Amino acid sequence: MKPKKTETESESEESQKTEKSTQSEQAEPCSEEAGAAESSEQQPAEAEDFRIRYLRSVADLENFRKRVAKEKALIIKSANAALIESLLPVIDTMKLGLEAAEKQAEASDLVQGFNMVLDQLNRVLEENGLEEISPDGAIFDPNLHESVAYQASDTVPLDHVIQTVRTGYRLNERLIRAANVIVSSGTNPEA
User: What is the per-residue pLDDT across 80-123, written as a single tens digit (0 to 9) for each?
Assistant: First the structure.
């Protein structure tokens, strides 16, 4: 059996409990102050981290904008290439028609008008990056020319273009149609 505590003992226990709680309360503000000190030390580091993240995000956004602009320009060029490539047979037909019409004297005014239209069309296409490949007299280049025939020639050296059968074209330095050519096979050995 436990002996009964006297009033003095009870009071002393209560005072000890009060002291302990006061000490713990005093310890908490110290830890709060220490936490505040630690957080004030962490704040510049966090601010620097956020600043670096912000700068990276800005750089990523700028790179994205540049990439989208390049892709947009490439899409426009590709669309232009398809359109221009589809116009090439029309230009060929127009040139053939003009060559045939030039032989008839009564069509001279019409030929002159169509030549002006063809010149204007060629200027517009050149402004958009189209370049003709007319290699008459040049050395045969399989990257730009497509040989449709070999022909002996006393005036044109071996492996040089004698005549362009169909004009070739480059668009923005990219070949879109090779020139069809007749290539010299050198002098005629039978002569």
Answer: 888 899 999 999 999 999 998 888 888 888 899 999 999 999 99
SS3 content of the chain, % helix, strand, coil (to 5): 60, 15, 20
CB 164 within 8 A of CB 134: yes
Domains of the chain: total: 1
- Is residue 174 in a domain? yes
> Which residues, 6+ apart, have CB-to-CB distance to 139 below 8 Å?
159, 160, 161
pTM for this prediction: 0.59
Three-class SS of residue 80? helix
* CATH number of the domain encompassing residue 146: 2.30.22.10
Q: How far, CA to CA in Å, does 179 sit from each of 32, 41, 144?
A: 84, 74, 6
Residues of the chain with pLDDT under 70: 1-40, 189-191
Residue 159 inside a domain? The answer is: yes
Provide the residue range defining the domain that includes 145. Answer: 130-191
Rounded to whole angstroms, the Cα distance separating 56 from 62 reads: 10
